[in-house]
Every structure is written in C-alpha cells, then in structure tokens.
Design brief:
This protein is an alpha+beta fold and 126 residues long. 22% of the residues lie in helices and 14% in strands.
C-alpha cells in the first residue's frame, strides 16, 4: 500500500519500495496487478485454531492474473481455480491445467520458504 499512498500524497515513485502503486483503483479507475499476489493464513495453530471436524482450506494462496492457487506448505491439497470463469471457486482445475499448477506451485512454495520461521509452541493457554 505504501507506493499507492505515496502517489496519492503527491510523492514521486523511487522504485525502491515493495509493492505496487494501485492509486488508480482508489480513484475509481480499473487496475490490474502486474505481479503475483501471495498470502498465508492459519500459520499459528494457537491463534488460528479451527474447530474440530471443520473443512480447512490449504494455508497458502497465490493469485496470478485470473488464476488462484491454494496449497498447503507441505505441498499437499493443491487447488487451482480460473476466477474469470469460476469466481465462486467451485471447479478445481489443477489436474487439467498441469503446467499452470506446476508453475504457480513452484513460485508459491519458494515464496513461503523466504518467510521467517515461527517458533513451534505446544503450550495451550486456557
């Protein structure tokens, strides 16, 4: 968000910051990301504990153009969706789109390896 806020404040882009300038989206103009978007959730089982018996989505995600990939950090649970044709994410096309799945999987798992490792804690607070 920093590049967008800097631009909206009238600052010139230096190219030295992380992120994309999406200021045009705040101005109501269409904006399409130029780079992939990565995110992770449910990393800490204490803070993000799911109820027993609930279906749990893979913990890593990547959006690249119209494609969205979900995968667990151990490489399991691969799901790929074409959001332009399936915005509700009901049709997993990972087995049909093997090249796209492989390319995105490689990028997403490489991104995850770059993140700092959290200490593992087995203690539970009441």
């Amino acid at each position: 968000m920093f590049p967008a806020f800097s631009s909206l404040a009238g600052q010139k882009e230096t190219g030295a910051t992380y992120g994309e300038n999406i200021a045009s989206a705040f101005e109501g103009k269409p904006y399409f990301r130029k780079t992939a978007l990565f995110w992770e959730y449910g990393r800490n089982n204490e803070s993000f504990r799911y109820p027993q018996g609930r279906d749990r989505s893979p913990n890593l995600a990547m959006r690249q153009g119209n494609w969205k990939l979900l995968i667990n950090d151990d490489g399991s649970g691969i799901e790929l969706y074409d959001l332009s044709n399936d915005p509700s994410e009901t049709n997993n096309v990972a087995e049909k789109q093997t090249m796209m799945t492989s390319q995105m999987r490689t990028k997403l798992l490489a991104w995850r390896k770059e993140l700092p490792q959290l200490p593992v804690s087995n203690s539970r607070k009441p």
